[in-house]
Amino acid sequence: MQSPESGVHYSRWDDSSRDEVSVAAMSSTEEASCCQRLSRKLCTGRLGIAMKVLGGVALFWVIFILGYVTGYYVHKCK
């Protein structure tokens, strides 16, 4: 019913009506995938803040340039 690599362990006690469910967190770095490690490194801490600031500045300039070019062609004198 449960796969051996899942992090959830379920066991039912025979002598009482209580059920025991335990969830194991993935704490080792070997179990984390490459994308998760990269995401954790690039999106947290000082590097994460710097990436968000740089992304915001780049997005600002892309929108500014698109608006400038669009405005140039819309208001172009004939």
TrEMBL record:
One of its GO terms (cellular component) is plasma membrane. It comes from Carlito syrichta (Philippine tarsier). The chain crosses the membrane at residues 49-74. Keywords: Membrane, Transmembrane, Transmembrane helix. The lineage of its organism: Eukaryota, Metazoa, Chordata, Craniata, Vertebrata. This is Small integral membrane protein 1. InterPro entries: SMIM1. It comes from the Eukaryota. The gene is SMIM1. One of its GO terms (molecular function) is protein homodimerization activity.
